[in-house]
Amino acid sequence: PHSLKFFERMWNALYTENLVKILLAEHKGQHVGGIILLKYGKGIYFWGSVLPEKFRYLNPTNYLLWQAIQEGRQNGYEVFNFGRTRPGTGVYWFKAGWSGAEVELPHYYWFNGVKEESMPDPEEPRYKFLSKVWGLIPTFIARRLGPKVIGGIGL
Fold first, then answer.
1. Pairing of the two strands 43-50 and 79-81
2. How far is residue 45 from each of residues 36, 69, 77, 153, measured CA to CA in Å?
């Protein structure tokens, strides 16, 4: 999770230049999901989404993505970029279901002095173990540590 300050800075830096857009889905007067889109040149880039668990069954992210694609076409955008995804994952197959073209992107990463041969794999046992440990941390602690930890994870 990113901190509120992160999102405030993103918004303040990009909104005045019309480079960011937030779409929200409502159901019976309640916000049930949202997505953040970045805009640059002829492309719209899906940055991320938020979805309260209790509204998952409504699939608001799918609706918002479709709305974003339609708005993009109406406003002259030529590309909708779902972003990088590891092949074979659930997210990969979700994105593939939109029938877009898969584009190979180069990897650029920096390990801050740590010698690594390849990107970390979240399917490795150590990452699964650490994920389970993180799930045991009380929420009030995780909220304070999360923004500091997320900056050091390159997944």
1. parallel
2. 9, 10, 11, 21
Give 13-37 pLDDT, tens digit per residue: 999 999 999 999 999 999 999 999 9
- In this structure, which long-range contacts are made by residues 145-152, counting pairs with CB atoms below 8 Å and at least 24 apart in sequence? 146/1, 146/3, 147/1, 147/2, 147/3, 147/5, 147/6, 150/1, 150/2
In the three-class reduction of DSSP (H, G, I as helix; E, B as strand; rest coil), residue 137 is classed as coil
Helix (H) or strand (E) holding 99: none
Residue 139, both tokens: 């929420």
- Residue 137: other Cβ atoms inside 10 A: 13
pLDDT 10s digits, 87-123: 888 888 988 888 888 888 777 666 666 666 666 677 8
Q: CA–CA separation, 32 vs 29, rounded Å?
A: 9
pLDDT of 155 higher than 50: no
pLDDT above 70: residue 5: yes
Q: With beta carbons less than 8 A apart as the criterion, state whether 36 and 48 touch.
A: yes
Q: Is 35 helix (H, G, I), strand (E, B) or coil?
A: strand
